[in-house]
Design goal:
The chain has about 220 residues and is an alpha/beta fold. It has eight helices and seven strands. It has a seven-stranded mixed beta sheet with strand order 3-2-1-4-5-7-6, with helices on both faces. It starts with about 20 loop residues before the first helix and ends with a strand. About 35% of the residues are buried.
Length: about 220
């Protein structure tokens, strides 16, 4: 049965373009350190994962906010020479992740804490996937988006190549703009591009749902020069 395109709602926001305070918030946080105490369950989970990656001794692919783990499985096939780690905070979602393969591990953790531990412990991340994060679309919720948050400089430093996917163009525009601005301020030259894409094979449940509904999907690639 054909999916009703109206059944999957587009992102609704009272923003008509990038948030007017984007530059102010990026500049506020770019040279500060995020000091919230790291959750103990995340610290424990991190060191369990570290044991796994040390045994394999190869580059790492990080799938942040992996949900039910479908994208992590796709990435494990794309990067067979790497160890692929899928991270999500929801035990319920991860319980539906299926059977892991040899180069894949899922972990339940607070994402922002996990990123900080990754950077502190100097993991060799080859590629970072950030697929369909919660857009927090109301203008009043903007500071909950990754690029408005004190964690953003940490995010940019994690990997030489980061890919963001979203079905909200404003989020993609903001992420790209914030990456350029933060990269300049951190003296970290970045190549940033944004484009519309249509997946041949959807890599997440959200991607499949949005694509079937005929929504435009946006990709932002951030690469260290």
């Amino acid at each position: 049965m054909e999916m009703d395109k109206n059944a999957v709602k587009k992102v609704f926001s009272n923003q008509e373009g990038p948030h007017e305070n984007l530059k102010e918030w990026v500049m506020r946080y770019v040279n500060t350190q995020y000091l919230r105490p790291i959750a103990e369950h995340t610290r424990k989970a991190f060191f369990e994962v570290e044991t796994f990656i040390e045994k394999r001794a190869c580059p790492i692919v990080l799938d942040s906010g992996c949900g039910t783990g479908r994208s992590t499985q796709v990435l494990a096939q794309k990067f067979p020479e790497c160890t692929v780690i899928g991270v999500d905070k929801s035990e319920v979602r991860l319980s539906r992740s299926g059977k892991p393969c040899e180069n894949l591990m899922w972990v339940r953790a607070e994402l922002l804490d996990f990123w900080r531990l990754v950077l502190e412990n100097k993991w060799e991340i080859k590629f970072h996937a950030l697929y369909y994060p919660n857009p927090w679309p109301k203008a009043s919720e903007a500071t909950r988006r990754f690029h408005f948050h004190p964690i953003f400089p940490t995010l940019l430093k994690l990997a030489p190549k980061t890919e963001l996917r979203t079905n909200w163009e404003i989020y993609a525009e903001e992420f790209a703009m914030a990456s350029v601005l933060a990269g300049d301020m951190l003296k970290m030259p970045l190549s940033v591009s944004k484009h519309i894409f249509q997946p041949e094979i959807p890599e997440t449940a959200f991607e499949e749902k949005y694509a079937k509904a005929g929504q435009e999907l946006f990709c932002v690639m951030v690469e260290h020069k």
